[in-house]
Design brief:
With 543 residues, the protein is α/β, with parallel strands linked by helices. It has 18 helices and 25 strands. The strands form four sheets. Strands 8, 15, 16, 17, 18, 19, 20, 21 and 22 form a nine-stranded mixed beta sheet that branches. A six-stranded mixed beta sheet has the order 3-2-7-23-24-25, with helices on one face. A six-stranded mixed beta sheet has the order 9-10-11-12-14-13. Helix 11 packs parallel to helix 12 and helix 13 crosses helix 16. The longest helix has 17 residues. The protein starts with a helix and ends with a strand.
Length: 543
């Protein structure tokens, strides 16, 4: 009897110790870059109810957990879900509904694409985006002459790749009521022989956009869903949309809540009276997939269209300094208002004059703020004497592919001396301690592997230049991956919920076919995404 009791107790103890914890998913046999504080690697992790439960070895976790589903990664590389810290998700979707002008090599090619689009779509208003005169043999801005000839009765508006210049025809000018007498601060309406050329820089473009046909809800939803699919396919799990109106933010929220949109969005509120009156009064919005706690402001325009505000004249255009879209006085007033509401201010600043203006404003307004994490978006050209403004309170949010896209002509714009403070990513990292990395798509391509390659190699996709563009400003692979994950999450106040593969965080991760941390440098841009997971759910799988 005693022997039987003893055996029963042993059986009971053995049953207790051998019982496994039930979970949703076990990922094993992987090369996992945790991106935790020690930048450790692992080979397996466990997920339950959308969150990571434990990270470790395949053997230990298999013995400890019983998973409904097991993924054998077969040695593939897994990184935390990739975050694009500065992009335009909704604009990407809109551009996919319009004339695609990216990669055109001449204005003639632009015209041919517009003609083909109109034959297929037969729209009442032709809208397109993506041309860049710097890619053409004739690098001069186009005029409306050809558009007027081809489309005398249909308005046409074609936005430059950076969103800071637009070529329109006479019909579009008439509808927008733009004449040679029209004047607007923060931009320019280009004239030639006292006649409209059709080219608009920055703020006057808004007059044209106001006349665009009203977008239907279906059109808006299609735009967001098409943009999301492109992002998921390329391994992104969170996108910071740098400038959205209230109606689109609410549409994103509703699509996420209904399960029609998986992507997480950090939404920067566009700086308009209507948007600020609402959000700064009612406060932040936070769900599992949406975070609204920041305001996007434009200090100046873009370098490619010579709208960036410079301290001294452009090297390739005497007596031209670009323009401030928001003056320093206006920015200070706005910054105080944003700070009082507890929101983050994220300001587009390209030229050295724009950068120092916003840096001065930030430094003054944030003196008494403990952990504001306000961002300078782009921080593209900074005077060497102004880098010290950056700190743990003032963070750079930059886009590495801008350096390798602009390197062909940037020095011509700003000269040999100013280029020393341009696209200075390593210097910015040293000053702030972290750096948030993005693409600025659709200005650049969505692919985050291009971001990684540009940051590390400082080369374009043609392996140019051989030794890298200003290679002293390159980031290490570890710094780059952090900038696309945990540092980007930190810049969004989300480092405790995403950005690394650690217990308690959202199970957002990306499986790659190449180990970007150890492969030959030039293999990085060819890396493909095998699968993308959000909340432990596979939202994209390569065919």
């Amino acid at each position: 009897m005693k022997k039987l009791l003893f055996l029963s107790i042993l059986f009971f103890l053995f049953s207790c110790t051998s019982e496994k914890t039930k979970v949703d998913l076990l990922v094993k046999n992987a090369t996992v870059y945790n991106v935790n504080s020690d930048f450790e690697t692992a080979e397996a992790f466990v997920i339950n109810k959308g969150k990571i439960v434990e990270v470790g070895t395949s053997e230990i976790l298999q013995n400890k957990y019983e998973a409904i589903k097991i993924i054998d990664a077969k040695g593939k590389t897994i990184v935390p879900g990739l975050i694009d810290a500065h992009a335009h998700l909704y604009n990407l979707g809109l551009s996919m509904q319009q004339v695609q002008l990216y990669g055109t090599k001449s204005f003639d090619e632009v015209l041919q694409r517009v003609i083909s689009f109109q034959k297929e779509k037969n729209t009442d208003y032709i809208i397109g985006r993506g041309w860049d005169q710097n890619d053409w043999e004739e690098k001069e801005f186009p005029t409306k002459k050809e558009l007027d000839s081809l489309f005398p009765d249909i308005p046409v508006a074609l936005t430059r790749i950076d969103g800071h210049a637009m070529i329109v025809n006479t019909k579009a000018l008439e509808i927008a009521e733009i004449t040679i007498e029209t004047k607007m601060e923060g931009g320019e309406i280009l004239l030639e022989n006292n006649k409209l050329t059709g080219l608009l820089i920055d703020t006057p473009m808004h007059l044209v956009r106001k006349t665009f046909p009203k977008q239907t809800r279906k059109y808006q939803i299609n735009a967001l869903k098409e943009a999301e699919q492109k992002c998921l396919k390329l391994g992104l799990t969170t996108v910071n949309d740098a400038g959205l109106d209230k109606d689109i933010i609410e549409l994103i929220d509703s699509l996420q809540q209904s399960g029609d949109l998986s992507l997480r969005v950090y939404a920067m509120v566009s700086n308009s009276k209507e948007n600020l009156d609402y959000y700064l009064h009612y406060g932040k919005v936070k769900t599992e997939r949406l975070n609204v706690r920041s305001v996007k402001v434009y200090a100046d325009g873009a370098l490619g269209s010579r709208g960036a505000a410079m301290k001294k004249e452009y090297s390739d255009q005497p007596n031209h300094y670009g323009a401030m879209i928001t003056t320093e006085t206006e920015m200070k007033k706005l910054a105080k208002k944003i700070a009082k509401a507890g929101f983050q201010m994220n300001t587009h600043a390209i030229g050295d004059s724009a950068n120092v203006s916003i840096l001065r404003v930030y430094s003054e307004v944030l003196k008494t703020k403990k952990d504001p994490r306000w961002k300078v978006e782009h921080a593209q050209i900074v005077s060497l004497s102004d880098f010290d403004y950056f700190s743990g309170k003032i963070l750079p949010s930059i886009q590495p592919t801008h350096a390798t896209s602009d390197m062909y002509w940037a020095e011509n714009r700003v000269g040999a001396e100013r280029i020393k403070g341009a696209y200075a990513y390593k210097t910015l990292l040293k000053k702030s301690g972290i750096i948030a990395l993005g693409t600025d798509f659709p200005i650049e391509k969505v692919n985050p592997m291009h971001t990684f390659y540009s940051a590390v190699a400082r080369k374009d996709l043609n392996n140019y230049p051989k030794d890298g563009f200003r290679k002293e400003e390159a980031l290490t692979r570890e710094e780059t991956l952090k900038g696309m994950t945990i540092w980007a999450a930190y810049s969004n106040f989300e480092e405790n919920e995403k950005g690394s593969i650690e217990a308690g965080k959202f199970a957002d991760f990306t499986i790659l076919d190449t180990d970007i941390m150890s492969c030959p440098e030039d293999d990085i841009p060819n890396t493909k995404v095998i699968s993308t997971f959000i909340n432990g759910v596979e939202v994209y799988k390569k065919d």
